[in-house]
Amino acid sequence: ETGVTQSPTHLIKTRGQQVTLRCSSQSGHNTVSWYQQALGQGPQFIFQYYREEENGRGNFPPRFSGLQFPNYSSELNVNALELDDSALYLCASSLVAGVHEQYFGPGTRLTVT
Amino acid sequence: GDSVTQMEGPVTLSEEAFLTINCTYTATGYPSLFWYVQYPGEGLQLLLKATKADDKGSNKGFEATYRKETTSFHLEKGSVQVSDSAVYFCALTDTNAGKSTFGDGTTLTVKP
């Protein structure tokens, strides 16, 4: 059974640029959620996708957008990067949306300079 | 909106000591509650869960009971080991909104 994978591991971008982060769900999982984790804080929910549709969204501006593909892999896109976007971005997959536990990937460390 | 408050750390205990990490929440509706653990150099992983009031989640000697009347989900372990040193996160999931809310984490260090 393949776990959740994310790419790239690390990324450095300049303020104003755009970035795309990628996530492959655990086998058989049709739901993926994205989180932003600042240093010393808990993960903050960005959004969730279930069967290619956005299923819930946290308090993030529209420049944070996502996609889920038919194979349930996912992308997180961030436009017009700001310094405060520097964080660890976590992807988590679950068997179905709702109460089921989430399986987290190792994260992508984004640094905006 | 939903929120989760964990006791502030760091927490330092001697091996075989009793552990309690407090977690309280506010939520509309009936969330599911979780504890996740992050060991040094590793990703977040589920430790235990409870999906309705009075449910008790347990795993690896850790326990937590979903207390609706006190909106709490405190994590306990009777005898901690050095290998339990990690960051512990309390979280809730609003199943209707498809949204999860995490606390800020509590760092536990267990000394031999």
Summarize it:
The complex is a heterodimer of chains A (113) and B (112). Helix content of chain A is 0%, strand content 50%.
User: How many β-strand runs of chain B?
Assistant: 12
Largest interface, C-beta within 8 A: A-B, 27 and 25 residues
Low-confidence stretches of chain B: none
Shape field of chain B: globular
Secondary-structure element string of chain B: EEEEEEEEEEEE
Calculate the terminal CA-CA distance of chain B, rounded to whole Å. Answer: 41 Å
State the major sheet of chain A.
Answer: 7 strands, mixed
Q: Which descriptor suits the 3D outline of chain A?
A: globular
Taking pLDDT < 50 over at least 5 consecutive residues as the criterion, the unreliable ranges of chain A are none
Sketch the topology of chain A as an H/E string, one letter per element: EEEEEEEEEEE
Give the overall average pLDDT of chain A.
92
Find the structural class of chain B using helix and strand composition: mainly beta
What does this structure look like?
Chain A is an all-beta fold. Helix content of chain A is 0%, strand content 50%. Chain B is mostly beta strands and 112 residues long. In chain B, 0% of the residues lie in helices and 53% in strands. Chain B has no helices and 12 strands. In chain B, strand 10 and strand 11 form a beta hairpin. The radius of gyration of chain B is 13 Å and the shape is globular. Chains A and B meet through strand 5, strand 6 and strand 10 of A and strand 5, strand 6, strand 10 and strand 11 of B.
Question: Top keywords for this entry?
Answer:
heterodimer, A: 113 residues, mainly beta, seven-stranded mixed beta sheet, four-stranded antiparallel beta sheet, 11 strands, 0% helix, globular, B: 112 residues, six-stranded mixed beta sheet, 53% strand
